[in-house]
């Protein structure tokens, strides 16, 4: 019965892996010592490894799976300025000044990754294509419109309203009740971006130890196939 749930050409792997297959790295055992051990070989871990290795540190990156096996090669590829929670909730927790600084990091992140990709010459289909946020009901549409027209000073995001009657100019469906377009938001190929980070981490001298696991005693061991 389970087989009937899937189409005949169903593939049990991310679409992104077709253009950027999962890296086949040898199961190198982690060294006995290092300056910095980075746990996880996704975007965050590899970016940390690149900076540290280029700074002269002896870096090893360990992961329970193959490099980039998780979200870094499976996400939707959207790159935006959004950070959650929103400003009002952050302000209640931390005060307006800290909340403002946290939300500004979203703007900084979008600018940083664009500069980083260009500087490192990473081939990952980076493009400022914009992003459509669809409303699943009229109330959600009203909230999107309100939020886009009542933005906190200094945290304004360029946006324009798309009513339901004009929705097909952005997306080929009538399921939504209109939405908002953020034209400055971008997209990239997640697996290609990860592959670029991996190559640069290795070139910088970082040691990649995929499929590394901890033994019952707590020591690091490597699982060999």
The gist of it:
With 225 residues, this protein is α/β, with parallel strands linked by helices. 32% of the residues lie in helices and 14% in strands.
What is the annotated CATH architecture of the domain at 24-77 and 189-225?
A: 3-Layer(bba) Sandwich
Q: Return the average pLDDT rounded to an integer.
A: 90
SS element count, helices:
5
Low-confidence stretches: 214-225
Identify the CATH class of the domain at 24-77 and 189-225.
Alpha Beta
Could you please describe the fold and organization of this structure?
The chain is an alpha/beta fold and 225 residues long. The protein has a domain at 24-77 and 189-225: 3-Layer(bba) Sandwich (FAD/NAD(P)-binding domain), CATH 3.50.50.60. It is 32% helix and 14% strand. It has helices at 43-54, 87-94, 96-120, 138-149, 190-203, and strands spanning 36-39, 59-62, 78-79, 131-134, 160-162, 179-182, 186-187, 207-209, 212-214, 220-222. The model is unreliable at 214-225 (pLDDT under 50).
């Amino acid at each position: 019965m389970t087989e009937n749930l899937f189409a005949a050409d169903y593939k049990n792997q991310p679409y992104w892996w077709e253009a950027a297959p999962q890296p086949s790295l040898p199961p190198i055992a982690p060294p006995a010592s290092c300056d910095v051990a980075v746990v996880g070989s996704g975007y965050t871990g590899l970016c940390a490894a690149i900076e540290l290795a280029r700074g002269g540190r002896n870096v090893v990156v360990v992961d329970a799976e193959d490099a980039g096996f998780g979200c870094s090669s499976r996400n939707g590829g959207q790159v935006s300025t959004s950070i959650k929670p929103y400003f009002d909730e952050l302000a209640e927790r931390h005060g307006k000044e800290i909340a403002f600084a946290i939300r500004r990091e979203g703007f900084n992140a979008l600018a940083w990754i664009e500069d980083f990709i260009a500087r490192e010459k990473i081939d990952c289909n980076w493009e400022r294509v914009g992003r459509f946020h669809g409303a699943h009901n009229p109330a959600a549409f009203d909230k999107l419109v309100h939020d886009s027209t009542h933005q906190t000073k200094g945290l304004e995001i360029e946006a324009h309203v798309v009513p339901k009657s004009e929705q097909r100019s952005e997306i080929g469906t009538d399921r939504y009740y209109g939405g908002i377009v953020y034209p400055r938001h971008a997209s990239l190929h997640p697996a290609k971006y990860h592959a670029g980070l991996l190559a640069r981490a290795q070139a910088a001298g970082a040691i990649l130890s995929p499929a590394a696991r901890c033994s019952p005693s707590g020591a690091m061991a490597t699982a060999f196939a």
